[in-house]
Amino acid sequence: TLLSVFIVSNLAFGAPYRVSDIRVGASDSLPQGIIELQGQAIFTANDGVLGKELWRTDGWNSYLIADIRPGASTSNPSELIKLGNYIYFRANDGIHGIELWKTDGSTTEMVADIRPGANASLPGNFTVYGDFIYFSADDGTNGREPEAPTRISETRYGAPKAKLLTIKTLSKVI
């Protein structure tokens, strides 16, 4: 079916063409969240074996970037957004719940376990403004609050919660 393939169209080359059939056969791979990073397209898709995971294509071939939740269970990466040389997104590794992750197109890592343990912080509503990604998340103590724990030049991940910037903190600085 049409949805089981990743299609590229470039008017300079003419008609769209199939890059790859990620989920071989009649079932759909449902590629979503397609975003450019360093000349490649980063997206999510389901190959029917590993579940919905993070993929990349150079326009000729498609490759699995990471099986974030190993095995057939899906990590369900979503809300992909670009900042600098990384794509940030939310995903579930089966251990920490749905948390903030990043990839450079070849390596992938969890940025922060905002709500420690198996309960999810459910980061969402991502937006880039200047050098920051703003989003909301639930740390398990203060409910869903605005966050901005990263900027291109400085990583604040792994720092104690009190040192994570929040929109309220930023508004006082500005």
Question: Could you explain how this protein is built, in words?
Answer:
Residues 1-5 and 151-174 have low confidence and may be disordered. Helix content is 4%, strand content 44%. The protein starts with 5 loop residues before the first strand and ends with a helix. A hairpin with a 2-residue loop joins strand 7 (78-83) and strand 8 (86-92). The protein is mostly beta strands.
In a few lines, what is going on in this structure?
The radius of gyration is 17 Å and the shape is globular.
Topology:
Layout: E1 6-8, E2 17-20, E3 32-37, E4 40-46, E5 52-57, E6 62-66, E7 78-83, E8 86-92, E9 98-103, E10 108-112, E11 124-129, E12 132-138, E13 144-147, E14 150-151, E15 154-155, H1 167-173
Antiparallel strand pairs: 1-2, 3-4, 4-5, 5-6, 7-8, 8-9, 9-10, 11-12, 12-13, 14-15
Spell the H/E element sequence.
Answer: EEEEEEEEEEEEEEEH
Average pLDDT works out at 80
**Number of helical elements:** 1
- Gyration radius (Cα, Å) is 17 Å
